[in-house]
Task: inverse folding
C-alpha cells in the first residue's frame, strides 16, 4: 500500500482529504462540482474545502466539542454535508451521517444510543429533531444550515457561525486508532447498531479507490451514493479526496435523462452506482442512452446488492462495457471482494478478494470449505478499514469473530478459479424440502422474464416443506397480471432453475422494498407476508 499517504504519523481523514491535498499542489484544483436539483453548478476547490472545513472545525471547538464526542449530520446531499463531515473529523469528534428521510423514531434510536452532543440539519428537518429533543438530554447543540440568525443559545445559524469562524485550524496529530466515522446498520434484526470506524480506514479506502475504482488525479468521478450510507462516505468523500480526485456531486434524485446528460456534459470517466439504479435504467427506452455521447466513460462500478447477470449483459450491449460489481459492508469500511478492470468478469460473481485481504468460506462447525459448496463468507481480521466496535454493544461485536475470522453474515461459495459467488444472507437462504435455495438466484431468473421489472423472494413457513418459496414481483407498466402469465413464469423458472426453486406463491405488488443502498429488504417482505412488524424501516428508499 502507498505509505506516502501518511505523513509524520498524521492519520486524520479530514486533514488528508483537504490540507494535505493543498500541500501537494492541488489547492486550486476542483475537488467538487456541486450540481443541485435545478442543475445549477458551483465549483469547490481543495482550497475551498480546506478553509471551509477548518471553519467548521473551529465552530465545533467554539461550541465546546471535545475529542471523541459524537456529532451527526442530518442533511440531504449538499455542500454543507461535506464541509461538516470533514470539519468534524479534523476536530477529532466522531462524525456520523444520517439519511435525510429518517423519521423521529430512527433519529431517536441513533442520537440516543450514541449520546450525540450535536447535529447539523436543515430548517425543514429540524422539526423532527425538535419533537424528540426532550428525550435526548445529551444533545446540546443544533446547527441549522438555512437560517440567518440563531434561534436560541443552542439552536444556531450555520451561516452566522461560519462567517465568524477563522479559516485556520491546527489539526492535532491523529493516531491510526482514533475513532472517526459512525454509521448505523439498517437493523435487519433488532435495533440499528452503531458501526464505529477509525481514522486509519483512509489507508484502505485510498488503496481501493486507486486499485479497484481505477481513480487517479486526472479522472472525473461520480459516486451516486447518499452520505447516509457507508459507500457515500468511503467512496463519495474519503477514497477519492485522499487522492486529489475531482468529483461530481448531484443533489437531485433518479432521472435517467438527467443522469445521462451529466455523464455526457461533465465528461465523467468513472461512475460508481447501485444495482437498483442500473435495473431502473434497464427499463428506460434505449434512445435515452443512444442520444447521449458517453465516450469519456471508462468504467462503471456497482455496489449494494449482488449484480444480476442480465444487467451486465445489458451494459455490454448498450455501452460496450462491463459493470464491475464490488462487495463490502458497513462493518468492513472498504471494498473487500470485487470485480475490477484486468480481471475477467464472470456475470453474477462477486469477483475475487483484494490481494491484501484473506477471505474464506467456512462451514457452521468452523471448517474451511475448499470445494464448491456454500458456507459462511469470512475475512481474516486486521484490515485497515475494519470497524472497531458496535457502539455500546461490544458483546455483539465480539460474536462476529470466531475461529480466527470475521463472519460477515453472508453465505457464498468459491469456484475452482477463486471467484466468489453470493448466495444470500445467512438468515435469507430458503430451506425447502431439505434443499437450500438462494433467493437471489430466483430473483435473477425472474428478472430475465420480459414482463417483470423487479422481484424479491423470501422463504415462508410451510407444514410440509419446512419453508416454501414466495416471490414478490412488480410488472412492467405495459403488462397486467393473469393466470396465463403466472403459468408462464412458473414454467420459465422450472426450466431455468428447477421445480424445487419454483415459487409456491407469486404475489404482485407496486414496489419492491429496498433500502438506500439498493438492497432488497427481504425481512420487510417476510413481515408483510406473515402479518408481523417489519421492525426498523428507516432506511427504506421511499
Result:
Amino acid at each position: 500500500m502507498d505509505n506516502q499517504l501518511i505523513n509524520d504519523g498524521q492519520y486524520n481523514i479530514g486533514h488528508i482529504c483537504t490540507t494535505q491535498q493543498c500541500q501537494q499542489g492541488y489547492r486550486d484544483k476542483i475537488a467538487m462540482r456541486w450540481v443541485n436539483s435545478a442543475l445549477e453548478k458551483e465549483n469547490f476547490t481543495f482550497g475551498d474545502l480546506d478553509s471551509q472545513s477548518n471553519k467548521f472545525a473551529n465552530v465545533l471547538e467554539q461550541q465546546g466539542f471535545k475529542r471523541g464526542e459524537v456529532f451527526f449530520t442530518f442533511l440531504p446531499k449538499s455542500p454543507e454535508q461535506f464541509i461538516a463531515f470533514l470539519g468534524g473529523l479534523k476536530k477529532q469528534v466522531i462524525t456520523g451521517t444520517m439519511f435525510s428521510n429518517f423519521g423521529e423514531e430512527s433519529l431517536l434510536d441513533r442520537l440516543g444510543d450514541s449520546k450525540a452532543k450535536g447535529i447539523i440539519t436543515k430548517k425543514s428537518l429540524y422539526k423532527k429533531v425538535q419533537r424528540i429533543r426532550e428525550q435526548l438530554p445529551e444533545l446540546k447543540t443544533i446547527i441549522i444550515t438555512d437560517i440567518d440568525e440563531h434561534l436560541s443559545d443552542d439552536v444556531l445559524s450555520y451561516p452566522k457561525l461560519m462567517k465568524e469562524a477563522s479559516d485556520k485550524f491546527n489539526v492535532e496529530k491523529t493516531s491510526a486508532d482514533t475513532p472517526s466515522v459512525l454509521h448505523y446498520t439498517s437493523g435487519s434484526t433488532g435495533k440499528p447498531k452503531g458501526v464505529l470506524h477509525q481514522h486509519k480506514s483512509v489507508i484502505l479506502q485510498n488503496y481501493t479507490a486507486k486499485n479497484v475504482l481505477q481513480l487517479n488525479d486526472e479522472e472525473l468521478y461520480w459516486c451516486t451514493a447518499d452520505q447516509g450510507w457507508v459507500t457515500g462516505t468511503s467512496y463519495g468523500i474519503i477514497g477519492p479526496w485522499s487522492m486529489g480526485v475531482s468529483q461530481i456531486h448531484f443533489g437531485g434524485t433518479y432521472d435517467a435523462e438527467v443522469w445521462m446528460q451529466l455523464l455526457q456534459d461533465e465528461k465523467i470517466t468513472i461512475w460508481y452506482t447501485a444495482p437498483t439504479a442500473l435495473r431502473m435504467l434497464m427499463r428506460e427506452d434505449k434512445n435515452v442512452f443512444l442520444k447521449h455521447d458517453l465516450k469519456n466513460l471508462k468504467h462503471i462500478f456497482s455496489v449494494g446488492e449482488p449484480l444480476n447477470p442480465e444487467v451486465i449483459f445489458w451494459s455490454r450491449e448498450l455501452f460496450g462495457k462491463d459493470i464491475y460489481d464490488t462487495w463490502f459492508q458497513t462493518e468492513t469500511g472498504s471494498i473487500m471482494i470485487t470485480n475490477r478492470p484486468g480481471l475477467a468478469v464472470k456475470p453474477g460473481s462477486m469477483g475475487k478478494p483484494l490481494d491484501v485481504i484473506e477471505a474464506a468460506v467456512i462451514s457452521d462447525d468452523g471448517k474451511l470449505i475448499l470445494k464448491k459448496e456454500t458456507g459462511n463468507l469470512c475475512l481474516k481480521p486486521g484490515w485497515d478499514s475494519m470497524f472497531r466496535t458496535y457502539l455500546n454493544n461490544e458483546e455483539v461485536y465480539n460474536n462476529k469473530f470466531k475461529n480466527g475470522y470475521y463472519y460477515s453474515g453472508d453465505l457464498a461459495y468459491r469456484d475452482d478459479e477463486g471467484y466468489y459467488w453470493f448466495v444470500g444472507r445467512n438468515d435469507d437462504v430458503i430451506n425447502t424440502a431439505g434443499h437450500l435455495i438462494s433467493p437471489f438466484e430466483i430473483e435473477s431468473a425472474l428478472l430475465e422474464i420480459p414482463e417483470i421489472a423487479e422481484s424479491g423472494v423470501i422463504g415462508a413457513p410451510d407444514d410440509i416443506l419446512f419453508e416454501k418459496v414466495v416471490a414478490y414481483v412488480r410488472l412492467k407498466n405495459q403488462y397486467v397480471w393473469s393466470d396465463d402469465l403466472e403459468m408462464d413464469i412458473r414454467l420459465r423458472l422450472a426450466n431455468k432453475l428447477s421445480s424445487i426453486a419454483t415459487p409456491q406463491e407469486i404475489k404482485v405488488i407496486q414496489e419492491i422494498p429496498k433500502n438506500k443502498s439498493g438492497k432488497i429488504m427481504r425481512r420487510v417482505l417476510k413481515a408483510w407476508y406473515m402479518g408481523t412488524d417489519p421492525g426498523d424501516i428507516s432506511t427504506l428508499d421511499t
User: Anything to note?
Assistant: The chain has a mean pLDDT of 93. Residues 38 and 252 are 8 Å apart (CA to CA).
